[in-house]
Amino acid sequence: MNSLAGKCSIYVCLAFLLIGCALPIERVHVVHVPAVDVYFVPPGHRMLEGGRVGLAWSNGTEFRIYIYGEQWADGVDAEDAILGHELLHVLNWLDGRIRNPDIQ
User: Fold this and answer.
1) Burial 59-97 (b: 16+ CB within 10 A, else e)
2) Using CA atoms, how far apart are residues 9 and 31, in angstroms rounded to an integer?
3) HSE (side-chain half, CA atoms, 13 Å) at 73
4) Is the separation of the CB atoms in 76 and 103 below 8 Å?
5) Nearest residue to 76 via CA among 42, 37, 36
6) Which residues lie below 8 Å from residue 40, measured CB to CB, with a gap of 6+?
7) Nearest to 35 by CA among 67, 6, 15
8) pLDDT tens-digit readout, 8-55
9) Using an 8 Å Cβ cutoff, are 65 and 83 in contact?
10) What are the backbone dihedrals phi and psi of residue 56, each rounded to the nearest 5 degrees, phi first?
11) Structure pTM?
């Protein structure tokens, strides 16, 4: 398992912080997130055609997030909001009580 997939719980927390809520939840809601492979890809990558900056994908057993990454001297970076949005898709697939981020 790569170190990024091992940090899924951090991204779950970020996803909830990024979306905001209409009403506060009344109790803790837990969604178990299996390994999620996150691919930081360069501009023009086939998975991000058509102007996409992120994409969540699953075949029901594997979960992947493709996100446009930028290379910096100290590593790769990406937009937190985009990563959080794509992670919300994965959470929605795993538990329908989590809102689909594409539905207003």
Assistant:
1) eeeebbbbbbbeeeeeeeebeeebbbbbbbbbbbeeeee
2) 10
3) 0
4) no
5) 42
6) 67, 68, 69, 76, 78
7) 6
8) 455 554 555 555 546 677 888 888 888 999 999 988 899 999 889 999
9) yes
10) -100, 140
11) 0.73
Q: What are phi and psi of 95, to 5 degrees?
A: -150, 110
* Closest alpha carbon to 65 in 75, 73, 43, 78: 78
Rg of the chain over Cα atoms, rounded to whole angstroms, equals 14
Instruction: Report CA-CA distances (Å) from 11 to 56, 72, 82.
Output: 14, 21, 11
pLDDT for the residue numbered 17: 52
Residue for token digits 């990558």?
45
Instruction: Extract the tokens encoding 7.
Output: 């940090």
